[in-house]
Write the structure tokens for this entry.
Amino acid sequence: MIDVAAPANATVVLFAEGPTSDWALPVPAAIAGAPAGQQRFAFEVDGLPPNTKPDGATLTLTAVAGERAIEVPFRLD
């Protein structure tokens, strides 16, 4: 699960990219339960290259709202 700082009425789309182009991660889905001022997303760490483990990998998370976007690295522990 990932929480993104954004008002409840904002349309936010979240994307997740693996550390290399051969990762095929799903698009995170918006889910309920976020604290006030945030939106919550969830996705499975699925679509990894063969024989790859996600432990220690750094994903790039990109939140897009209208014409604005922010990209944040996120390390999987």
User: Anything to note?
Assistant: The first strand starts at residue 2 and ends at 5. The chain is about 0% helix and 45% strand. Residues 2-75 form one domain. The chain has one domain: 2-75.
